[in-house]
Each structure stands twice: as C-alpha cells, then as structure tokens.
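Issue: ligand-bound run for pyridoxal-5'-phosphate - logging full I/O for the record.

Environment: standard queue, default settings, no custom constraints.

Inputs:
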Amino acid sequence: MKDSIHANWQMTQQTYDENESKQVYYFSMEFLLGRLVESNLLNMGMLDLYHDTLKSLGFNPEEVFREEHDAGLGNGGLGRLAACFLDSLASLQLPGHGMGIRYKYGLFQQKVVNGYQVELPDNWLKDEYMWETKRDDKAIEVRFGGTVESKVENGHLQFSHHDYERVLAVPYDVPIVGYDNNTVNTLRLWSAESTTNSFHFHSSRGHDYYHYLDYKRSIEKISEFLYPDDSYYEGKILRLKQQYFLVSAGLQSILQRYKKRNKPLSQLSDHVVIQINDTHPSLVVPELMRLLIDEEKLGWDEAWTITEKTVAYTNHTTLSEALEKWPEEMIKTLFPRLYLIIHEINERFCKMLWYDYPELRDKIAEMAIISYEQVHMSHLAMVGSFSINGVAKLHTSILQNRVMKPFYTVFPERFNNKTNGITHRRWLLNANPELANVITEAIGKEWIHSPEKLTDLISFASDSSFQEAIAKVKHDNKLKLAALIKEQYQITIDDQSIVDVQIKRLHGYKRQLLNLFHIIHLYNRCLEDPNLDLTPRTFIFGAKAAPSYSFAKQVIKLINAVAEKINKHPQISSKIKVLFLENYSVTLAERIIPAADLSEQISTASKEASGTGNMKLMMNGALTIGTQDGANVEIAELVGKENIFTFGLTSDEVFNYQRSGDYRARDYYNNDRRLRNVMDLLVNQHFSGDDVEFKDIFYSLLYNNDEYFVLRDFDEYIKIQNDVQQTYQNQTDWVNKSIINIARSGKFSSDRTIQEYANDIWNIKPTKIGNLIIN
Ligand SMILES: *Cc1c(COP(=O)(O)O)cnc(C)c1O
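Outputs:
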C-alpha cells in the first residue's frame, strides 16, 4: 500500500507543477490525525482485500490496526477539523496541503488514578512513524532574536539582521490520500534541529562541547511538545516561538516552490492561498511582508497588496480567555524585524481609520493591532487578510454583530461563514462499517461520493424492516463498546440502556457539570423512591483537562467520585451506570460514537463556535440534546424541532444577562430544592471523604455567580431529559428520529465545507491525477 501511495504522491505533485494549479496551504498549529492505516486503506480501495488477507492468515484485522499509535498533534476540535479538511481536500482532488509542527510529544496521555487525571508524555515517535518522510534537502533556516539595522542603499531603506539565533527547520512529509481518485497531497510537519555549523566552536575552550549541548537542547525544545490547552490562551514565550517557527519555515518553503514556476511575485495570489486555522499563525502577515520586502526587494505597497490577497483567516472562538495578545516587548525581542513591520501595519491601519471612518474614531484604541503594550493577534489577522470566516452561522453572526463589529463595519466584504464539517469516510465508513452497509443496501452507494444523498434515507425512516436493521446495528455497536468497557474497567453495562455520551475537552463552558447534576439528581430520586421507573442509562464521559486548569480537573474527580458511588450501589447501579473513559482521543471517539444513543451538546449558548462532535454523533444515529449554540442550531434546522431535544438560554439571553448583570445564581439554589439537594452533596462528604475536595466547584457556582449559567439551565435540562426517556420508551419513534438524523447529516460532511472554501475563498478547482501504471 505504501508503495502505491508514494507513486501517486509523486504523480500528484508533478501534475500540480505541470498544470500550474493554484495551491492552498492550511497553516495550523494542530493536526489531530489519529490512526492512518485503516483510513488510507479505505481511500486506496484496499480495505476489503486487507481484511480478507489478514483473516486468511489467522489475524484479527482490528488487533492489527490497534498496533498503530495515534498521531495526536492536537488538543480537540480545532486540530481534528484540520485533519478532516485534509481528507476532504484530497478526496475532492483539490491541491491543498497542511503546514504544521512535528511535535516530538503530542497531547498527553491521560490516566485516571484514584479518580484524578494524571498526565503522561505521549512519546508517539518512539517506534518510527511509518507515514513520514524526512526531507533534509528542503530544510530551511529560521531566525530568532538579534538586532536590526537600517541604512539607505540606492535611495531605498534596507534592513539587515544581525546576531540572531539560527534554527534549522526540517520538513517531515506525510502523504494525504484522497478517496478513490489517485490524489495524494502533503501534510508538511516541521521539526526544529540544530546544526554544528550554526554554532561557533572555539577549539581553545574545552567546555564548548557542553555549551553546544545546551544550545542544541534549546533549539530542539521549539518542536518538543504541543501545548495542552484548548480555548485558553497562555502567554508562554516558547509557544510564540513555535508559532513563528511554523510560519517562517512554511512561507519560505512556499516561496521557494513558487519561484520555480518563474512567475512574478505580483501574481503570487493567483497561485497560492494561505488559510490560517485560528489566530495562532497570524504572524504569516508580517513574515510574508518581511520576505517580500527584505528578501525579494519589493516596496511596501506592492508587498502589502500581495499579502492581503494571499492570506485568509478562520476564527474559532469568541471566548475572551482564548484571544491571543502577546506583550509588545516579547515580539520586539524575539522578532525585531517583524516588530517594525507590525508597527508600520498598525500605524497605517489606524491612520486609515482616522481619515476614512470618522464615525469610528472613538473605537481606534479598541481596534488597534498594538495597544496598551500588547499585540492583538486577531486584529493583525483581520487587517492582513482578504477573508475572515466564522465556523457556524451563529458564530459568524456573533463575530459580525458583536465581537468584531467595528471590523465588520470597515471590512464587510471580508466576512463570511463556513460551517464546519467532518469527513464521513473516517466517521461513518471506517468507524461504523455496519451502519455504512445498511445504508448502502437501502439507497445504493452514491452517498459515499455525494454525502448529501443520505437524504434518500428519509423515505425509509418509517420502514419497519429498515428500522430493525438500524436498531440492530446500534445494538451490535453497544455490545462492542460494552466488551471494551468490560475488558478495561471490569464494569458491565446494560446493552438495553440509553447510551448517553458527552465526549469533548473538559471546559467550564461545555458544562460537563450540568450533565453530572442531572445524574446526581436521578441518583437522589432513586434514593428517595427505590421503585422509581427509570429507563436504564449508561452515562459516558470522555474528556481531557488542561493540566493547569484546576477547576476542570476537579470536575473529572467529581465525575469519578459520583461514578464510584453509583456503580457500586446495589440497587441503583442496575438503572444507572457512569463511566469516565480515560484518554479520550480520535481512536476512542471512533469506538464510542457508533454506540451512542444520545449526544450531549450542552454548552452555554454563544460559547461553542461550532462543535464537530455533535456532527459525528448525529451521523451515527444519535439524537442530540443541546442548547441553541454553534452548529446545534443548524442541526435543529435540518432535522426539525421534533427530532432534537433543545433547551436552555439562547445566546441573546446570555448576552442580555451579561450586559445587565442581573443573573443571580443564588436564587436558583435557594428556590429549587432539587438543585440544593444535588449541590449540597458536593460539600457534605457524600462523594468524597474530604469535605473541601469539591468546594471550589460549589463556590464557583454560588459565590462567583455561575459564569456558565449551569443553575439557570438546570430545570429546563431536567425536563427535557425526561422527554428523552419518554421518547426512548417508544422505540419505533426513537429509531425513526435516529434515521432522520442520519439522513440529514450529509450536510455536515467536510466535503461540503471544503467545497465552499474552494468556491468562495480560495478560488481553486480540482486537478485530476492520471492513473499510474505500475509494473
Ligand atoms: C471531534 C473531536 C473533538 C471535538 O469535539 P467537540 O464536541 O466538538 O468539542 C475533540 N476531540 C476529539 C478526539 C475529536 O475526535
């Protein structure tokens, strides 16, 4: 298989060069690829053959695939989106490539010890990584620090950079295989390496060797590990170095390749487009300016025109704690030349605002790229790019009408929406082959190339034999998940129970706590009434918490404490089981999602930009219980309100509360006995021998006024959870809704998303790759 991929890979690159196809480069600090063997086999059309061959040799294919280590170079949704996009680009025959960092350690491996999260290093390169190819010949020098001098030469101001630190950026290329089409694109991952010739040895000084080792270490640190934070910004100098390292190496390699086409730089944007995945790679704007001005000797205006036409920006969050702002001093010290350029961009932008937008004069300080000694990366990205997109309709409208409103006034034509998507090849064909087969038997296989064709299933929604087939698949998948849980945790789950899952990073806004409060409430009801008629439920959590996020880690401990109590209860455990499955990752997601009945998407409205877990679960037949947030809004539009369980504050209501300041969490605690009975268990040693263990959670709700409106939405959540149980009791009705969800999920294939990027932002067309004849 690898040989065929490499042959197609070469052919693809050659065809792109010959056709001078416009290339897209997707710059992302994260690519959460998961495993590649099975999905590459699928895309190469070899999966069935391999299955049969392995079986005939006496191997279990699943066990063989399990040998591959996940490539976990991402935290969560943002990194997984980048991976789904690469799959869709190649599958749509689009010339689009990834630019990322080859972290030596990916996202930490999570263990649960005594209910607490423990982080272990993810040494994914320990055994060699079969998919990568090191390209020493394409190594690039990246420069940090030093000083900048300017002088006038031939009437032009020239800048020269001295005393900088040199870092060698070495690319490791990973092939990205398209589905059934010969296209193989490239994910280029950069590794920071030192060279002996970039270090000055003085033979007279014996300790130089140790200095060299220190120096080598300091350089290799740049691509050593992925920062384990999601939707949070930490102003760590090493993280900023990583960002520049990616940007500079990536841009230099793109310009080198472009120059081989012998086209003038003024036409760069006809051949190249750079999409940045969130603000992390925003330094592409000043770095491209630097390369064009200092290296290519273009004037400012020409360089700016090119930059503005080449760079496009995707925003992923409106959470203020996630918006990047770097200290001006840090930028100045690390990138003295870039600092001058950013300063100039800012001056020109602010002047333009002053003269052209007199009505915005009182907003200039708020819109500036540099203000109060901080560099605002999202402002830099917006000013320097031709397209600014949000990732779901609601998110884009919040950007335009609230968070980035003044920028929308200045650049209305730049704003657009691109609702996220997921690759149905990995998340349906690979993860749930049984379901894929049942679908194909009903409507044929056209949906595999054109996922919107899944709507053909609508006419089968009330067909009883199709319903039976769908129900059987779900049940079989529950048995498989039950076996995994039995093996790993020695806990037996009821295969007739409602499998209720919340799998995503642990974060206050995602409200795992609200889910847990419902569980504790059910537990209290069972204690009060041992004969309570409850449809059995299995609650599954999967979530990593950022190691420095202590609230999130306390929530993990609380989930485990509640699970321990409930699962060991002689009566209640037959109705409720609670499982925290450790080390949530792409591979674990692929096991859980096919077995899920209920998809928990319960973020505080306005806080989840899109979500993609919601899409994966819908595509696998789970019904959503969710707030009107992110892409949940679009799911509800598609399936109709009778096929989704919606509850809670709307985003406008959340904004109104935030403006007026008249939310009083304490009133909900005082006035709702059920809520009090739940919350008091956190601080009376019921779930922990220690009465201070969960007090921070309790205090954040009562004394810090419950930033995420958990108490406000509790009552509506409990009520709608009761509707869920009622609906589930009528299996025909439930399966009917499940089929409608699958049928409407085609819209959320990332093929649709990528087609929209290609048409509306990138202006690129497919390039067909010919068939290779291999002898
Ligand atoms: C899809 C996915 C996510 C994103 O989940 P959300 O529910 O959208 O936050 C995170 N982690 C992994 C491993 C995923 O596969």
